[in-house]
TrEMBL record:
A Pfam family it matches: Peptidase_A8
Official protein name in the record: Lipoprotein signal peptidase
Originating organism: Silvibacterium dinghuense
GO biological process, one term: proteolysis
Annotated transmembrane regions: 66-84
Keyword Cell membrane belongs to the record: yes
Record's bilayer topology term: Multi-pass membrane protein
Length: 160
């Protein structure tokens, strides 16, 4: 089963790299292509911060970059260790962690290479503009939601 889980992580990394490459080479920085007017655009922005553009306006951007790299590396190592331990069975938790691992490595790749993460999915909900995001971010959020669901709906075997 571990092979399937690591394959899922690799798929996320590959999709993230491919989509960021396409956007970077076909949409000018700051430009966007409207897909659904008023709702969804494919944009090209660079994010020096974390999810939802947190820490973007940091007074020490280089410190922020290295903090985010360190945090992402530690998270990847921890998730990898857990997957190696629990990955013998295909569970909701294992799939969630494989998604988080792939997403984490996808954004870490950008951060280490350039210090900036390419974001390109732009969503508007009524009058709210959701911060631009990418495939890696989507995998991390989806994995987080699946972890929450696994926690809420999986029987605790230790009390049986």
């Amino acid at each position: 089963m571990r092979g399937w889980l690591f394959g899922l992580s690799a798929l996320i990394i590959g999709l993230d790299r491919w989509t960021k490459h396409l956007v970077s080479h076909h949409i000018g920085l700051g430009d966007a292509i409207t897909v659904i007017p008023g709702v969804f655009r494919i944009s090209h922005v660079l994010n020096s911060g974390a999810a939802f553009s947190l820490f973007t306006d940091s007074p020490h951007p280089e410190h922020t970059r290295w903090f985010l790299i360190a945090f992402s590396l530690i998270a990847a190592i921890v998730v990898l260790g857990i997957l190696l331990r629990i990955g013998r069975r295909m569970t909701l938790t294992a799939v969630a962690l494989a998604l988080v691992l792939g997403g984490d490595i996808g954004n870490l790749w950008d951060r280490m290479r350039t210090g900036l993460v390419v974001d390109f999915l732009e969503v508007h909900i009524v009058h709210y503009h959701w911060p631009d995001f990418n495939v890696a971010d989507s995998a991390i959020v989806t994995g987080g939601i699946l972890l929450l669901l696994a926690t809420l709906f999986t029987k605790d075997e230790s009390h049986a």
